[in-house]
């Protein structure tokens, strides 16, 4: 499958497919003319990459997880559970930090609005 076909089938821009390849997430084979060709499972690989990106995982982590998939879905081997649990804890920490920042910013806005009304 050529890169344009993979792009059409997955809905992922050619530029992103090249990026995934540069990051070691997706593998292609080059023809004599230098054109990229992908294996038949490339759409599944791209779907997995997109799912892991949507889960907030950086490409360096995704690269490590790619060989650990089981079956045709997004299920991963037990050996990566600790790593995924750590990633989830990092997300929870970031969410808590953002929630505090949002509350603080909301308080600043409320105080500023009250000050304008009282003035």
TrEMBL record:
- SUPFAM superfamilies under this entry? Putative DNA-binding domain
Domain (HTH merR-type): residue spans on this chain: 1-68
- InterPro entries referenced in this protein's UniProt entry, alphabetically: DNA-bd_dom_put_sf, MerR-type_HTH_dom, MerR_fam
Which Pfam families does this chain map to? MerR_1
Superkingdom of origin organism: Bacteria
Q: Which Gene3D superfamilies match?
A: 1.10.1660.10
This protein's UniProt keywords: DNA-binding, Repressor, Transcription, Transcription regulation
**Protein name stated in the entry:** MerR family transcriptional regulator
Which species does the entry assign this protein to? Actinomadura gamaensis
């Amino acid at each position: 499958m050529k890169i344009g076909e993979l792009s059409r089938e997955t809905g992922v821009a050619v530029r992103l497919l090249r990026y995934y390849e540069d990051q070691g997430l997706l593998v292609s084979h080059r023809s004599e003319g230098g054109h990229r060709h992908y294996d038949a499972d490339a759409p599944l690989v791209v779907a997995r990459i997109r799912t892991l990106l949507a889960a907030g995982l950086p490409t360096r982590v995704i690269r490590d997880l790619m060989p650990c998939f089981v079956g045709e879905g997004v299920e991963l081997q037990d050996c990566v559970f600790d790593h995924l649990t750590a990633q989830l804890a990092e997300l929870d920490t970031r969410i808590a930090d953002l929630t505090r920042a949002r509350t603080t910013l909301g308080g600043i806005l409320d105080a500023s609005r009250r000050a304008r009304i009282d003035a």
